[in-house]
């Protein structure tokens, strides 16, 4: 078993195949999309592979320490060119292949004209535990 | 076993322990332990006097814990002091407990957590689930909160306004996880209104009931948000509305207006309209004016602009909006709505997209995106 982070981007990912923003879809297309995403997560819950999912707001700022007694320095909101993560799902699967398969399924969520978006998702393995038996 | 009934006994039980000389933090732990035992034992062996049972059980837990700790001397002091504790009523104890858990020295999140546990009788795990944080984090938050109020005297007069703010926060979290926070907030506000006669307590209770009455109609079967004007009013809970209106009227009759009563009055006017088109927007604007006198909050001004748009037309609404800071949350959403009503559909669609980008929750983001899509198609 290993955990993988599936990252979805507002921007910064390569363009999807069916790359039409949601405000250009019909109501039914939006409904179908939302249902697909919810069903996907629900199914992973029943297969025992779901860990967590969260969505992030469409804003972000860089921040860093600027020395004793000084307020933090900020830079932002992020410039238009900056990667902007939209959210994540964490899954726990038996193999990397299975994780890829699930990510691909998520990327097939329907968009404009009910066709798959083919959205690019980023998949990142978590570090695991050091094994108990080492020799 | 009625768990809500069981939990409603806890403030009085905790009050008795504290008056017997137990310090608040230890007493609160002991009461929680007694609650767990009650849940385990009562179904097979229901007590004749539930409160008496809880007091005995909690006091025993407290003594056990104190004995186990190194504070033996202190325990003896406590027991020595016990007979000197003067009599006080359950209602006093309950009220004092609300004050303590919403003490001004606590941060809002600490006050909320402590109130839900010590007054509400929820377990740390339940509270953690409701607020989507790990149980250990919530345990730490509660334990720090208890330390913060550790030196506060139990019989000090408190501020009702701070208690109401905490209950309002709980109600507004709504529903996540197994615990229905809105229902719990109503239960706690109802319990508070039983021990103190205060028009703003009644006002907040009325406000909660009137909003809760619309809950079933606020989400569509697919989980998306349904705005007030489009809600199926036959699904509104008329019993809750009637109760809310009655409580509000009694509060207003006391002639000590406050912001919760004014907000409840606005909710009551919405509840009163059989169809959205019959909403008395003129009166709603008047109530927003009252509310502004009380709070002068930019959020109220924003909501007032919507009401003005309905009462006097979208141009008037846009004019009221123009006086506000456009960085306010939901400013773009209100602007989009008013522009749409004014017939500027392209501007409205653009503003809906902008509003969706600024939304603070997913349901709202989806709703606003749908509005843009509706105009673009």
From TrEMBL, chain A:
It comes from the Bacteria. Pfam families: YCII (PF03795). Residues 17-107 form the YCII-related domain. Belongs to the YciI family. This is YciI family protein. The lineage of its organism: Bacteria, Bacillati, Actinomycetota, Actinomycetes, Pseudonocardiales.
TrEMBL record, chain B:
Residues 5-70 form the RNA polymerase sigma-70 region domain. Residues 98-148 form the RNA polymerase sigma factor 70 region 4 type domain. Residues 161-251 form the DUF6596 domain. GO terms for molecular function: DNA binding; sigma factor activity. It comes from the Bacteria. The keyword Transcription applies. The keyword Metal-binding does not apply. Keywords: Sigma factor, Transcription, Transcription regulation. GO terms for biological process: DNA-templated transcription initiation. InterPro entries: DUF6596, RNA_pol_sigma70_r2, RNA_pol_sigma70_r4_t2, RNA_pol_sigma_r2, RNA_pol_sigma_r3/r4-like, WH-like_DNA-bd_sf. Belongs to the sigma-70 factor family. ECF subfamily. This is RNA polymerase sigma factor, sigma-70 family. It comes from Lentzea waywayandensis. The lineage of its organism: Bacteria, Bacillati, Actinomycetota, Actinomycetes, Pseudonocardiales.
């Amino acid at each position: 078993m290993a955990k993988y982070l599936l990252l979805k981007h507002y921007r910064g990912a390569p363009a999807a195949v069916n790359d039409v923003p949601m405000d250009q879809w019909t109501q039914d297309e939006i409904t179908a999309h939302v249902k697909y995403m919810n069903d996907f997560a629900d199914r992973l819950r029943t297969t025992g592979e779901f860990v967590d999912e969260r969505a992030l707001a469409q804003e972000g700022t860089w921040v860093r320490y600027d020395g004793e007694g000084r307020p933090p320095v900020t830079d932002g909101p992020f410039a238009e060119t900056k990667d902007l993560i939209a959210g994540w799902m964490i899954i726990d699967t038996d193999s990397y292949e299975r994780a890829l398969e699930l990510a691909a399924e998520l990327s097939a969520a329907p968009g404009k004209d009910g066709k798959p978006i083919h959205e690019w998702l980023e998949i990142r393995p978590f570090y695991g535990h050091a094994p108990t038996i080492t020799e | 076993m009625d768990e809500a009934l069981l939990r409603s006994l806890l403030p009085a039980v905790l009050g008795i322990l504290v008056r017997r000389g137990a310090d608040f933090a230890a007493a609160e732990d002991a009461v929680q332990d007694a609650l767990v035992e009650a849940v385990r034992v009562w179904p097979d062996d229901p007590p004749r006097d539930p409160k008496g049972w809880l007091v005995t059980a909690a006091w025993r837990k407290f003594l056990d814990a104190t004995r186990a700790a190194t504070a033996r001397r202190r325990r003896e002091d406590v027991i020595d002091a016990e007979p000197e504790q003067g009599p006080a009523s359950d209602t006093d104890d309950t009220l004092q407990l609300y004050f303590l858990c919403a003490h001004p020295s606590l941060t809002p999140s600490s006050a909320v957590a402590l109130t839900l546990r010590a007054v509400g009788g929820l377990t740390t795990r339940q509270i953690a689930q409701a607020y989507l944080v790990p149980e250990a984090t919530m345990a730490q938050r509660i334990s720090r909160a208890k330390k913060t109020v550790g030196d506060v005297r139990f019989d000090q007069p408190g501020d009702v306004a701070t208690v109401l703010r905490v209950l309002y926060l709980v109600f507004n979290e709504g529903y996540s996880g197994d615990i229905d926070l809105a229902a719990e907030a109503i239960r706690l506000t109802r319990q508070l209104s039983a021990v103190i006669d205060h028009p703003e307590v009644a006002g907040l209770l009325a406000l909660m009931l009137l909003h809760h009455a619309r809950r079933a109609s606020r989400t569509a079967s697919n989980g998306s948000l349904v705005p007030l004007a489009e809600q199926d009013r036959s699904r509104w809970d008329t019993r809750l509305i009637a109760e809310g209106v009655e409580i509000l009227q009694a509060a207003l009759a006391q002639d000590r207006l406050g912001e919760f009563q004014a907000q409840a009055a606005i909710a009551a006017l919405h509840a009163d309209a059989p169809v959205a088109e019959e909403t008395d927007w003129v009166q709603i604007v008047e109530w927003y004016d009252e509310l502004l006198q009380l709070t002068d909050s930019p959020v109220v001004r924003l909501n007032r602009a919507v009401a003005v748009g309905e009462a006097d037309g979208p141009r008037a609404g846009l004019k009221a909006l123009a006086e506000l800071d456009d960085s306010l949350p939901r400013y773009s959403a209100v602007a989009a709505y008013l522009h749409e009503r004014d017939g500027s559909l392209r501007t409205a669609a653009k503003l809906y997209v902008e509003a969706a980008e600024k939304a603070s929750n997913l349901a709202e983001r989806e709703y606003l995106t749908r509005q843009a899509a509706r105009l673009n198609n």
